[in-house]
Amino acid sequence: MNEPTTVYIKPSTGIAALNLRDLWVYRELVFFMIWRDIKVRYKQTALGAAWAILQPVLTMLVFNFLFGNIAKMPTDGDIPYPIFSYTALLPWGLFATALNSASRSLTSNQNMITKTYFPRLVLPMASVLGGLLDFAIAFVVLIGLMFYFGITPGINALWALPLFTLLAILTALGIALWLSAINVQYRDVGYALPFLSQFWMFVTPIAYSSSVISPQWQAVYALNPMAGVVNGFRWALLGVGNPPDMLIGISAVISVFILLSGLVYFRNMERTFADTI
């Protein structure tokens, strides 16, 4: 007669506790949610996907009038202000759109959460990745502006742009994981989010150059991951500013920290979503 076998079940620890493998198992659901978000975003709008172009272009025109013509804000390397600001608005638009939609992704899909099981991480991730289509459409306008102003991007753009785009996505996803989980319990997030986005935009070098920040504050300024993203885009596409250095490294480290801490917090709160929402 065989001796009974005792199996000790222990909770997962470390990275395994995050169950990131579920995202691969439910990858088809991720693709479906991305496609659904894209279809719903401009449903019953007269201009449709044209808003992906109008939003950054109109913001660029306002910035050009206020900061370029009236305030006479300097640009790096005598780059024309319209393209200088639009190059920054491109990654910022990706970040802001992802942050706003992903932070509300749980509360806007409460019927799914309460009726069926799936990794809740799918919802904020799909909202973030769905913004890549708008980013691609707006990027076409940037190519036209560069052609108009006679600016040719360097070879570094081939590897730098995907890297800095990924950094913007990781930052948006990390913040969205925190805010979406908090939003399930406290709907104040919906009221604070517009202020947070506006405040974050002004502390990011979009309407101005990061060179106006005094050297002793540059390291503190680099704690904003989007500052590194914007400076990286301008360096890769316009050839202005410093190449990736320690300050951009600080931005990348902060972005990864926000993402990992957001994953841990989101997973810890996930078991309560269905009951609380």
Describe this structure in words.
The protein is mostly helical and 277 residues long. The chain has one domain (22-266). The protein is 67% helix and 0% strand.
List the helices and strands and how they pair.
Elements: H1 21-25, H2 27-41, H3 51-70, H4 81-103, H5 110-115, H6 122-130, H7 132-148, H8 157-185, H9 188-202, H10 218-221, H11 225-238, H12 246-270, H13 273-276
Q: Level of helix content?
A: 55-70%
Give the termini distance in whole angstroms: 52 Å
H-E order:
HHHHHHHHHHHHH
Uncertain residue segments: 7-16
Arithmetic mean of pLDDT = 85
Please report the total strand number as a whole number: 0
Strand content: under 5%
- Radius of gyration, in angstroms, nearest whole number: 21 Å
Instruction: Supply the number of structural domains.
Output: 1
Q: Give the biggest beta sheet.
A: none
What structural category do the secondary elements indicate?
Answer: mainly alpha
Briefly, what is this?
67% of the residues lie in helices and 0% in strands.
Please supply descriptive tags for the structure shown above:
277 residues; mainly alpha; 13 helices; globular
